[in-house]
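Running co-folding for IDC.
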Amino acid sequence: MRWQNPVRAVALAAVLGTAGTAGYAAPAPQPAAETPLAANGKVSVCGNTLCNDSGEPVQLRGMSTHGLQWYSQCVNDESLDALAQDWRADVLRISMYVQEGGYEEDPERFTALVNQYVEAATQRGMYAIIDWHMLDPGDPNFNLERARTFFAEVARTHRDKTNVLYEIANEPSGVEWPEIKGYAEEVIPVIREQDPDSVVLVGTRAWSSLGVSEGGSEQEVVDNPVNADNIMYTFHFYAASHGEEYLNTLSRAADKLPMFVTEFGTQEASGDGGDDFGSAQRYLDLMAEKNISWTNWNYSDDSRSGAVFKEGTCDSGPYTGTEPLKPAGAWVRERVQ
Ligand code: IDC
């Protein structure tokens, strides 16, 4: 977090004191007013970036969960305390798969789980991204009715919060941009009806590569943007697979479109294999320079190199420090901090 407004943060600290951190074993308690949420309030899109409620640019940095159907055991009070206080993350992306054993199997259970994690992020002063993790089939319209039901429900539940962002399509693939835009223009009004002023994040063509992975570029979005305000477009990259062309696309796009990187890894697109920290750092430098917010994939103890924790960590913790982390985890924790 860039502390654009220390004066306000200090004033709030005086008012709020340290209330709100009691009730669990905090590794490094901090006053509520020092949380990203207390300092920045409701965020919105201004120009091509995200701004706090004083209109100052902010860059949110944090982590995405793994699929909740597989790794919800890694998202618990202790691990979220570590994320908020040890990692000092601004934002938690709550990755709810639609297929592969996710939402479609049990909408009530997954909706409740998402709501629970939004509350947990809120209590810790973090922003929460509700990620509709569609992946296969790649046409978001396949899940349009489910998305309408889900987003009406979560937007109604969280409409009075100031920290929720809605990501309506994780990674479209095998589908043209106008189809994705059409989907967005169906789902965004459903959200706005309940929650008129929260940021909505729209996935882009070809696994949120702005079209690059299927031979396109950001131009298709620039020429034909989604007809809605207060939205951003997403870009995902995996540093060991996605080189120069992807980096340059993100760089150009960020000058013309509001961009949010809701997923990246330091390894290959499989989320596994060797880390390319050199390539990843170039992206991080670009995102710092252009004030692009990001969440890294992923906050779990899956065996793959991109899961930040060593296998078995989520059985009983601990989650703080570098001891439980794989190399990618130690690298990204430092950069979140
Ligand atoms: C991977 C998971 C893996 C799962 C696979 C298919 O790490 O356990 O079997 O998805 O669901 C993405 C996707 C994200 C992928 C990730 C790594 O959004 O779901 O996670 N990735 O492959 N896009 C590019 C990479």
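Result summary
Residues 16 and 33 are 6 Å apart (CA to CA).
Residues 1-24 have pLDDT under 50 and may be disordered.
Job closed.
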